Amino acid sequence: MLEHGAFVALALLLIWVALLVPLARGTLKAVPFGAASMFLALMIPFFWLGPEITELTILKVGSFKTNAEQATKYFEEIKTIRTKIETEAQAVNTALTALKADIAEARTETRKIKQRLADRQLTDQQVSEIFDKLTVFKGQEFSIVTYWEMREPLAFANRINVTLDLAGWKYIKLERATFVMGGIEGVQVWRHPNAEERVQKAADALVAALNDTGVTTVLKLQNTDNNPIDNKLTLDVGTKPDFP
User: Fold this and answer.
1) Distance between alpha carbon 181 and the CA centroid of its chain, in Å?
2) Helix (H, G, I), strand (E, B), or coil: what is residue 231?
3) What is the pLDDT of residues 110-160, one digit of tens each?
4) Can you give the C-alpha Rg of the chain in angstroms?
């Protein structure tokens, strides 16, 4: 295996060979080429022999004490510097990866907060999907109760009302002012336990359709002691659930 000094000698030899091209083309004069050749002729053996030469003296020029051993030292220093640079680059890449992960996590948390604070919506696509599932129960009677004084539940209740109206369901206005009990989240669909089978299926389809669009909805059964059999459904629209 060649020593570092031998590599330097080969590099100098390649330089001399490269000088033959401009010499042949006439772009390099013979005098400069001769001077360069003499210099290379001295330096090539100097580096090739390595530690066997400790000093080279050229008349009227001076002495060269930098031999192959010194060149090896330089190569080792370069390797040390390169290793240090690679180590520092790896540390920087690790820090950048951690920073990118932190930014991605922060963006995810920000998105969750925005979703938590945003009003509930039913897009036109979702309304169309609900319509397809509920239109088979056309004529089903329903009423809606919500927090009338709160903007978000009221607006969402109106959106549900519009959706059911498009599906052909029949809105029944309450005879007296009715309010949702405090602390209710999401949507509750109330039906009588002994309602007709078609009404029971309509209630189940409504709960499933709303849940499929991401609206938290549960089915509730009325108390038979206080409520006569009624085939009307009642929707209690509470506040938006505060998901963790």
Assistant:
1) 42
2) coil
3) 776 666 667 898 999 999 999 999 999 999 999 999 998 899 999 999 999
4) 44
**21: which 2 tokens?**
């091209």
Phi-psi category of residue 87: left, alpha or beta, with phi > 0 → left and psi -120 to 50 → alpha: alpha
Give the span between the Cα atoms of 129 and 212, in whole angstroms. Answer: 9
Domain boundaries, the chain: 1-116, 124-237
Residue 134 CB: number of other CB atoms within 10 A? Answer: 22
Q: The tokens of 172 are what?
A: 């029944």
User: Is this prediction's pTM over 0.90?
Assistant: no
CA distances from 23 to 38, 40, 44 (A): 15, 16, 20
How far apart CA 52 and CA 57 sit, in angstroms, is: 15
Sequence-ordered list of residues with C-beta below 8 angstroms from that of 143, at least 6 positions apart, any chain: 171, 172, 173, 174, 232, 233, 234, 235
